[in-house]
Amino acid sequence: MVALLQKVFKMLEITCNDRLGKKVRVKCNPDDTIGDLKKLIAAQTGTRADKIVLKKWYTIFKDHIKIEDYEIHDGMNLELYYQ
């Protein structure tokens, strides 16, 4: 019964592009926060996580909200900016 109630999450692969020649592909869970995603990106790019801004069109993603709440899906592209 407990196994039926647990959510089974599939890992998402998200691509972040800064349009300056750097393109990062990151695998994460849908229940991770945007802050967790920024830490994974920071580990690959060598920049600090607090200097990373993630956007999609004009939406700036907040650190404390989960990836699934923003309806970010597998294979989605996000814009990567530095502040």
Describe the structure.
With 83 residues, the protein is of the alpha+beta class. Helices cover 19% and strands 30% of the residues. The N and C termini lie far apart (47 Å). Residues 1-6 have low confidence and may be disordered.
> What would you call the structural class?
alpha+beta
Strand content: 25-35%
Average of the residue pLDDT scores: 86
In total, the number of strands is 5
**How many H/I helices?**
2
Global morphology: globular
State the share of residues found in helices, binned by percent: 10-25%
Q: Strand count, sense and closure of the main sheet?
A: 5 strands, mixed
Spatial order of strands in the largest sheet: 2-1-5-3-4
Q: Regions with pLDDT < 50 over 5+ consecutive residues?
A: 1-6
Return the string of H and E elements. Answer: HEEHEEE
Distance from N terminus to C terminus (CA atoms, Å) equals: 47 Å
| Rg estimate, integer Å | 13 Å
Brief account:
The chain is α+β, with helices and mostly antiparallel strands and 83 residues long.
